[in-house]
Queue: 3 jobs
Job 1
Amino acid sequence: MCQAQQYPCYCGCQPCCGGTPMVSPYELSVDSATTKAQALVGGASTVHLSLEYLVDGGASSPSITVTTASNGTTSTWQETAPGTGYQVKRDFMNIPPGTTVTVDASEAAARLRWCETFCC
């Protein structure tokens, strides 16, 4: 309970009492010209990553890799033989604030999306 306002503080950051939790969407996009992008995930709670990708026409060996790094630990998700057509991986990885995410695509376009919750 938020003692000053007598209601729960949902966003988990200080000071939250009397503030409003906000959600902000973020994304990283790469394509065959820009094959790698990186961002810092922030906010006040765990984020749920979603990935969209589309393999280039005539691709011989496409791949999509998502790497996360936090507190000295690295985790990697990779699709080394993605099917043709538009693909979506929803909520495939959950990561804490303070994590660096990198998306890397070869012979494909990819977009990594997430939402961060923070206090105003």
Job 2
Amino acid sequence: MNGKIIFLVTLSFCFCIPGSAQIDWGEQVIEVGFFDDTSTYRFISDTSLYNEGWYLLPQVRFWRMVVNLDPEYSLLNIADTREVLSSLQTWTYDDLSLKQRRRYKDSVRVKFDLTPRTKLWVTQGRKDYYQIAKILPDIHRAIAIFLEENTDPWYAQSILLIESPGEMRVSPVGAKGPFQLMGEVAISVGLEVNERIDERRFFGPSARGAARYLSMICIPAARKIMEYHDIPYQENELWFRLFVLHIYHAGPNNMRRVMRYKKPKNGGMDLIQELWQTNYRSFGNASQNYSQITLAALLELEQIVYQKKGFFIPSP
């Protein structure tokens, strides 16, 4: 997967569920090939990332910096806006005591004329974790599985990009596998998880479990939450999908509580940005970051395909 992309083909992207009307999820499937590989791989290109201005948001620009930054370095940034104030070697900050870290941040607040209550974060580079180019084959496989499960394949790509890109990991709370499913969630959607076997570890079952969890739990929960708050939506809108991802990560009950706490009047980008500033009960920093990192990873994937590698579109 280290070779350059040699071609792209744009394919129509409208799906049929047997025995029902067509579902148009509103993207294009792009097929890509590599010099050192005779196979082709599909990914989903979403023009709303650019058309709606998501790529310009400071939080998204910040996370694009992080996913391209070597872990040897960290970014000192303002928590609320993600404005980067400086970069530093990670070890120099890690070696400080808690008292020294407080003094360091206080000196930065004075230098930049910030209020004493301005929250500052030091965010380590994550280039080693977000190995985006490596997972195009997995995205290709997952898109097919999600379509078989009649689930919007945009979620397959997005979750793979941010949960365990290129590696098999176990989260601190027990989520496991390429789609980072909790054990009880996996069991509820038909996966076998016991002392003998854990199907979350295997790509196919994990993808099917994630697709079922989204279609059976997360997306219906998002619909009900929007209807409860009288917020109009379309399921192929990017903001709605990002909201569904927050449900996937934080859980339906948690998102219901957050929305009742915030009492939003509108959806769209404004709602997602509001969630980025919300800290309520178990909806904390990791939950706020989830859709920010999703957008950054999607944009990085687009750039890898369209700009960094070079390509041509063959004649029909």
Job 3
Amino acid sequence: MIKIPCHCGNIIESDLEPVVDPGDDPDIYTKIIEGDFMTFHCPQCGTDLKTETALRLTDSGRGIDISFIPELDRGEYLSGRMDLPGKRVAIGYRELVEKIVLAGENLDDRLIEIIKFNLLEKADSNLIKIYFSHRENDDLIFHIHGLKPDQIGLSRIPGTVYTKLLPQLDDLLGNDDIKLFTEGPYVSVSRIYLED
């Protein structure tokens, strides 16, 4: 159980546990993707509060084991002062959504991060963030944040790019530049692009 302080002074007691098994409640995946997960309603003032709290999602049936931490804890985790038990780590809500969508699409997150790395190399800017959004027909759709204020760009990568790179994944993972963001439980190109 977590306690969430509301702006009105009320403390909301949630039944959200530190370890969540989405297999017990498949609607959790929909709530995560739609942004309703970790949103709580204050019965005193009627405000809906969106919070981020550290937790672990484990669903052995789908092979999901994600330790989630809020964006505010990024520095502590990357500095090695925080040890997390999950097979994967998601920092911030957008990364959690991305990991869940990738698992649902049965896509290897390491290869998706390599594709994002190539897109970021072409953009040549550390202000841009890229997230996998969904698969449309056979195309991989990425949302690009930071190109213009208050706008989200879109990049459509043919699914054949993923298919051609998949047999090369082991060789790609041996590349020193790629190891920087694919080794360990935190598989994210943000490890190198958000540090500057």
